[in-house]
Sequence to fold (402 residues):
Amino acid sequence: MVRYFRRGRASSWSELLRSDPFSVEDVRRSARRRLPRPVFDFVEGGADDEVTLGANRAAFRQLALRPRRLAGIAHPDLSTTVLGMPVRTPVLLSPIGLARLMSRDGELAVARAATHHGTIYAVPTMSTVRMETVRAGCSGPLWFQLTPWRDNELIARLVRRAATAGYTALVVTVDVPVVGKRERDLRHGFRVPPRPSLRTAHHFALRPAWSRRSRTEPPLAYENLADGPPLLADHARYINDRLANPGASWEDLKRIRTMWDGPIVLKGVMTAEDAERALECGMQGILVSNHGGRQLDTELATLDALPAVLEAVRNRAEVYLDGGVRRGSDVVKALALGARACFVGRPYMYGLAHNGQDGVSLVLDLLRAEIETTMTLAGRAGVADLDASLLTAAAVAIGDRP
Ligand SMILES: Cc1cc2nc3c(=O)[nH]c(=O)nc-3n(C[C@H](O)[C@H](O)[C@H](O)COP(=O)(O)O)c2cc1C
Fold:
């Protein structure tokens, strides 16, 4: 029993009565029980009315699967390649800043879990562990995420550091010319590092283990940025005032292209027109993403934006998707439409809050097992066999009652 507590599997007696997580949703609930509400909401929330946040999930329910029976598939092959690198599953890890909010080792724990699973993690600029430390702490391939900030010198420095450290690809995020309006954070007065205020003290008091950890561990900072944030900075205001570049254009992307010899993935593309421009700028990969519904509210769900981007790209670059992927069947559907791989964001952050590196591993295990089961039940032998014949539009969203 004592060992159960020590291994971090349970933080209270009531926790012992709960079963292990069987799904990403179970891991999400565990994260919600462990994190103070303002911290959980920072990860969970979207922009404005969170319409796009919900649409990302709903889009998967509008697509139904058409299984083929008696296909004799004992062990479906989940392996594939991304940008020529082999991965054991078509699930990669999206860049998410401030991972140490979730658990002690933050981005380092995520990178180690990715290596363990034979997949790739895109380490964010807004990491709370230095990119060199993350790189040195695991052996698998890592990509580095960059935003075209207003300071060209800063961009050049980050690109040089990523190359020297041994990152194999750049992910350039283009959907944050300014930070979206995230009302959960505004209501809580979300700060980095988070501190209780009169309005939020009870949320922190209800999560003593998290609060103890945040008092005893080194303070949270944006470790890749030399000056770091002023203490108790408003995260969104810090980015808007000091980093973000509303004037960013395709010229900035071309400049980044000249700084980096390896492949670049453009993250945040949602239209055929932008996919075309991305190819003109020499991108090798396109990540269809709306930043998990945190930026422009009421833009399309990523699954709905995917077909037009694929049609524009016509195999001239690899196309990936993130946003709302929570089940193995979601990954199978995106791949059947033509995506090369999916990325997940919040799911691994929930895992990190649930149980550090082991929690991230758990999420990857759950998704892998679900993909395997889905492919077996659908009668598909491997990732290469996933095509549009597996899909049909659902008359009503799967799971909704007419
Ligand atoms: C808390 C949080 C922080 C994020 N930070 C970044 C970031 O620093 N850079 C970036 O390119 N995307 C960032 N994203 C977007 C993710 O990379 C990804 O696009 C999104 O989480 C995918 O949706 P999902 O969470 O539904 O899987 C962030 C997302 C969340 C939830």
The first helix runs from residue 2 to 6. The chain is about 45% helix and 10% strand.
